[in-house]
Amino acid sequence: MKLQLTSLFAALLLAGCASVGTVDPSQLPQAPAAYRTQAADGAPALTASWWQPFADPVLDDLVARAMNANTTVQSAANRLAQARAALGSAQAGRLPQVGVSAGAGRSSAPGQLVPQPATQYSAGLNLAYELDLGGRLLHERNAAALDVQAREQLLADARLLVQANVARGYLALRALDTERGLVRDTVAAYGETLSLTEKRARAGDVADLDLARVRAELAANEAEALALDRRRVELETALAVLVGEPASSFVLKPTAWTTALPAVPAGLPSELLQRRPDLAAARSQLQAAQARVGAAQAAWWPSLSLTAQGGGVSSELSNLLKSGASTWGVGLLGALPLFDGGRREAGVNAAKSQMDAEAIAFREQFLLALKDVEDQLGALSLLQAQDAASARAVSAAGQALKLSDTRYRNGLVSQLELLDARRSELANRRAALQVRSAQYQATVGLIRALGGGWPSPSV
């Protein structure tokens, strides 16, 4: 399997570029046959709008707003426009260059006893065309085209990154809203317990120490609720930046967390090379480096340029365009490098070193992509088991709290038992909520690691 993938990569890299140098096969990525952790079976394939299976209209709206106004996406689009302009310049270098010229000068003819200055007017049409004998211009054009392809893929990667960050930020905000609700419910419960304790203290049934304990627990939970409020402000303003809107006017009201949790198919490791835009961009950059090696090698070839011009020269401006004043000329200019002090050889070596560096970067990027997928798959597998354990803990803690509250109201247990039961119940509920939030974060992370719904690149 690894040998086949290496051969495939070599063929992909050499296609579209002339035979200008080879990449060390050990520097090319080699995909394993399968992931170490298996993903969910029977899940639907990812689409371009990968966030829609979460079935949350607010998330859909935030992603749409981010795609319209996010500055990271806009910067990537601007860099793509620059690459396309560079490609236009490289393509123009392979075409004939046509221009017009006009001039006027005053001089004297040689051999005259008394110099008689005369004015000469000229106008003409000029043509120049470089014959690309060694393919240098072609390689430069191919490199520029691959740069455009890489920028297109980097733009897709920027969009995917922003989409994932919006989804993660939004889901974290919804989880935090739910956690804030739990803490505020606990604050209300402590308030009721404090009222009951105060009544019993006035009746002399409990000591002042018990009253102080309840007040301390109530104040601690009120402080925790305020800390969660502060955290919510931070998440909300971070989302404002992602959607490209001022934080002062961006508001996302708390609502019930009803977002679905979709299952994500992982596919095969080799599919990452077609699904992840950053890997496709790294591959295009490697191909562009290969093309630049060809351009550097072609610098050893002789250059041959064809020139032609036609026009008129006359001492009278009115006669400039008449047939009697017409001139024309055709030329062929050639140049062959013989000695340049090693400049061309250094250029070839530099281009080859850059190609090797791009190959290493490509392989490193692929290894990191595999790590990302394995991390998220492993997290989802463990979080599923952790979620089941957390659910059992919440159920048991809730039952213990009910029993402790009933026994405390009947005077059968001390206040310490009730406070401990309430504290344990809140801690287990918050832990279960954090596990659920981690499942959503890992799901988005897995989609991001797999390349989202980005289509397979054309090579």
Briefly summarize what is shown.
The chain contains 9 helices and 4 strands; from the N terminus they run H-H-H-E-E-H-H-H-H-E-E-H-H. By secondary structure, it is an alpha+beta fold.
Q: Beta fraction of the residues?
A: 5-15%
Uncertain residue segments: 1-19, 454-459
Shape: elongated
What does the main sheet amount to? 4 strands, antiparallel
Question: What are the secondary-structure elements, in order, as H or E?
Answer: HHHEEHHHHEEHH
SS field, number of helical segments = 9
Backbone structural class: alpha+beta
Chain-averaged pLDDT: 83
**What percentage of residues falls in helices of 4 or more residues?**
55-70%
List the strand order in the largest sheet. 1-2-3-4
The span between the termini is 21 Å
Q: Write down how many β-strands occur, each being a DSSP E stretch of 2 or more residues.
A: 4
Radius of gyration: 36 Å
Descriptive report:
With 459 residues, this protein is α+β, with helices and mostly antiparallel strands. The chain contains 9 helices and 4 strands; from the N terminus they run αααββααααββαα. It has helices spanning 2-14, 57-69, 71-92, 136-202, 208-242, 272-275, 277-298, 343-409, 415-450, and strands at 97-107, 118-131, 303-314, 326-335. The chain has a 4-stranded antiparallel sheet, with no helix packed on it. The chain is elongated and about 130 Å long. The chain starts with a helix and ends in a 9-residue tail after the last helix.
